[in-house]
Write a structure and sequence with these properties.
By secondary structure, the chain is an alpha/beta fold. About 55% of the residues lie in helices and about 15% in strands. The protein contains 13 helices and 8 strands. The chain has helices at about 1-10, 15-20, 25-30, 40-50, 65-85, 110-125, 140-150, 170-180, 200-215, 230-240, 260-265, 285-290, 295-305; strands spanning about 55-60, 95, 130-135, 160-165, 180-185, 220-225, 250-255, 270-280. An 8-stranded parallel barrel has the order 1-2-3-4-5-6-7-8, surrounded by 7 helices. Helix 7 (about 140-150) links the parallel strand 3 and strand 4 (about 160-165). The chain is globular.
């Protein structure tokens, strides 16, 4: 019940100011956000890599309002790729991008986002890595998938994300699995109406399993974005039935969540990638993490009470 309320708060400027000023916020944000700058995140990438984990990096920030801000987002990713190149970390770290940050919602946004993301994808390919296009709310997906298809013409390793709670996703999964795409599946973390998305958690889990089966049986590369032990076990079984080797799919979890499980899967030989976000505009990302799991919200409230 709390999830939709928190998601609504994620778009409230008044709530943004309140949360940012709360005494315990900094402590909790540090659990999910790896820092504010490239200098903060690079040592974390190095540490995770040394522990046998791979990384996908997200420069947080979605609600841009100008073309200049979209160019700044592009340049932030290019700076990140440059640092990864200097340190030889390209093969251990990919990038995750939200096209809204690249100007998708602005006038002429589809073309602007494509123009901004292409040099990031090109630069990533030059250092031996790639980019995954994150899914956002349902109104943005047709544009995202069209950009994904366009980028794959020159960079077939470009990935995308699908969300199990949307009614459209099984059809999207079949199409992507047939054309050999890299696909991350997540449950979904945006407030969506009942007309386009499943609302019941158990039914979302069932849809997640159906979609995993489609991806595992397909021609692409599945990326299982989940912290749920049941879904992880199901994914392993579906991969076994599909005859997939351990390097033919991977698991992904968020930085700061279930660290021991991340290391366990890596120790078993699975590819385990940690979704690692950093940047100063952390609010929207942080609030969705709270919405996904009540324990995260309780941790935040306790921190505020302790520090207050």
């Amino acid at each position: 019940m709390l999830g939709p309320v928190i998601l609504a708060a994620s778009r409230s400027d008044k709530m943004r100011r309140f949360v940012s000023a709360a005494p315990g916020t900094k402590q909790v944000v540090a659990r999910f956000i790896a820092g504010e700058s490239v200098d903060d995140v690079v040592p974390i990438v190095q540490e995770l890599s040394e522990r046998g984990l791979e990384v996908t990096l997200d420069v947080v920030g979605e609600d841009i309002t100008t073309v200049e801000q979209s160019h700044a987002a592009r340049d932030a990713y290019l700076e990140l790729i440059g640092r990864l190149k200097e340190l030889g970390l390209g093969e251990r770290a990919e990038m995750s991008v939200k096209l809204s940050m690249f100007g998708q919602a602005l006038e002429g946004g589809h073309e602007l986002a494509l123009a901004n993301v292409r040099p990031v994808v090109e630069a990533a390919a030059e250092i031996g890595t790639t980019v995954t296009l994150d899914a956002e709310d349902h109104t943005t997906l047709d544009s995202m998938f069209a950009i994904h298809e366009e980028l794959r013409k020159d960079f077939p390793q470009t990935g995308c994300v699908i969300q199990a709670y949307l009614f459209r996703t099984e059809d999207d999964a079949r199409r992507l699995a047939a054309n050999g795409s890299r696909v991350r599946i997540v449950k979904g973390a945006y407030k969506e109406p009942a007309s386009v998305a499943i609302q019941d958690k158990r039914e979302i889990d069932k849809a997640y399993v159906r979609i995993m089966r489609i991806l595992m049986d397909g021609e692409g590369y599945p990326m299982i974005g989940s912290h749920d032990p049941r879904l992880i076990s199901v994914a392993q079984e579906l991969a076994r039935r599909a005859g997939r080797k351990l390097d033919e799919y991977e698991f992904q979890m968020l930085y700061g969540i279930r660290g021991e499980e991340q290391h366990r899967l890596a120790a078993e030989g699975h590819r385990m990638r940690v979704y690692t976000a950093y940047g100063t505009d952390w609010y929207g990302y942080f609030m969705r993490r709270l919405a996904e799991k009540p324990a995260n919200l309780l941790f935040f409230v306790r921190s505020i009470l302790t520090k207050g």
